[in-house]
Amino acid sequence: MLYTIRMTLRVLVGLAFGHSAYGQTTWHVDDDTCPAVGNGSQVDPYCSIQIAIDASTNGDAIQVANGTYVELINFNGKAVSLRSASDNPATTIIDGDSDGPIVTCNSGGTSTTLLRGLTITNGQANRGGGMNISSASPTVINCVFRQNFAFEGGAVYNNFADVFRPQTLTFSNCVFEGNVAQSSGAAMLNRNSSSPVLANCQFVGNRASNGAGILNDRNCSPIVTNCIFSGNEAGLHGGGMLNVFLSSPILTNCTFSGNSAFDSRGALGNLQSSDPVLTNCILWDNGPLAMTSCCRSNPTISNSIIQDGLPMDTIDGGGNIDINPLFVDPNGADEILGTVDDDFRLLPGSPAIDAGNNSAVPVGVMTDFDGHTRFVDDILTVDTGVGIAPIVDIGAFEFVLGDCDADGDADIADHVILDGCLTSPGDGLGVGCACLDLDADGDVDLRDFGYFQMAFIP
């Protein structure tokens, strides 16, 4: 049910309970209040997120309790913070009930307009089923965009079109899963000089005719770092990403795997003078061709792993290789490529280890996709990358010797796993033990135990 109520009544109710319409206030929302309206206090929260937005002013915060909120919301140009109380998108959900963009952020929204810790699902619109952004620059953190539909921009449609100021839109630690666009950009469509910053985001299992993961159209050059594109499917062009009309994103430490497209541009396609720059990236298992470019498009690729070598019309920045990156489990526990459990961490002996270019990592980026330390030296690997040691790894994940449980170090939990994996030389690997074959010889023996002890942190 969608709740509607006049703005004047909402503000007056808030004022009656001590909330200033002009001061910095925290408004509370809880669907347990419904069908009553509430007054936005912690004791008597609003039942609707939109009511809280309408009552808020610039600088206010809106805190949403766990629950499923069936409604559409519009920031109305306000610089307010909207977040889940738990910061857990799995428990705080906005369901659009297939009725228009779920989140609208139009002119006036700045980087202090915040959306955090929410799942945005079941939206349906012509543009931006999950979120429609127009000439605004909100900050989106730790959100899940799942199963949204639109003609363009299934999950997010971003149209900046403001020649007088740059866009500062940011998405970090977000998941775009199972979104559909009838035409273009199932997970995200950026148009007209829209160049968001994307960090530690996962684009998985999205479907569109063009640019199933991301479509950048007309001078859009986002900065994409530590992101994963997996299992995205384009009926025509650009499974993972399609760049058209002077769109030249900068991609650093990204992993593309299992993406597909009818025209074989499985990972990326570049058209009409679009010149993306890829450094420290992995393009593996994306169909016959990882990337194709035409019409005066010349991408630059450096210190990356590209299956079958550099594509045509590509500028070779050096340090590129065509060797299996040795992912831990690209199909994940469910054995289905293109789902969120796909594991693109690196196994011991991966050619991606210590093979990147330190100078390409954006200033201030010190962690990998998992939030673990980005620059870690592997004592068993000869550095082949560029920079002063420790050398960054290629791909979205940094390898840590002996870190079998993926928590960023080799600790007592990994030691327990090691104890269960130890065999005699040549006995093979048990289930889940490949991460501890530290010398990459096909078993976990006393030699691996010795290497583990060198990396072990009590």
Tell me the layout of helices and strands:
Elements: H1 7-16, E1 26-29, H2 49-55, E2 61-64, E3 67-70, E4 73-74, E5 81-84, E6 92-95, E7 103-105, E8 114-116, E9 119-121, E10 124-127, E11 131-134, E12 139-141, E13 144-146, E14 149-152, E15 156-159, E16 170-172, E17 175-177, E18 180-184, E19 188-191, E20 197-199, E21 202-204, E22 207-210, E23 214-217, E24 223-225, E25 228-230, E26 233-237, E27 241-244, E28 250-252, E29 255-257, E30 260-261, E31 265-271, E32 277-279, E33 282-284, E34 289-293, E35 300-302, E36 305-306, E37 315-316, E38 327-329, E39 343-346, H3 412-421, H4 446-455
Parallel strand pairs: 1-2, 2-5, 3-6, 4-7, 5-8, 6-9, 7-11, 8-12, 9-13, 10-14, 11-15, 12-16, 13-17, 14-18, 15-19, 16-20, 17-21, 18-22, 19-23, 20-24, 21-25, 22-26, 23-27, 24-28, 25-29, 26-30, 27-31, 28-32, 29-33, 31-34, 32-35, 33-36, 35-37
Antiparallel strand pairs: 38-39
Helix pairs in contact: 1-2
Give a description of the structure.
The strands form 5 sheets. A 12-stranded parallel beta sheet has the order 1-2-5-8-12-16-20-24-28-32-35-37, covered by helices on one side. The protein is globular, with a radius of gyration of 23 Å. Among the domains are: 1-70 and 81-94, no CATH class; 406-458, Orthogonal Bundle (Type 1 dockerin domain), CATH 1.10.1330. The chain starts with 6 loop residues before the first helix and ends with a helix. It has 4 helices and 39 strands. The protein has 458 residues and is mostly beta strands. The longest helix is centred in the N-terminal third of the chain and has 10 residues, at 7-16. Helix 1 crosses helix 2 (49-55).
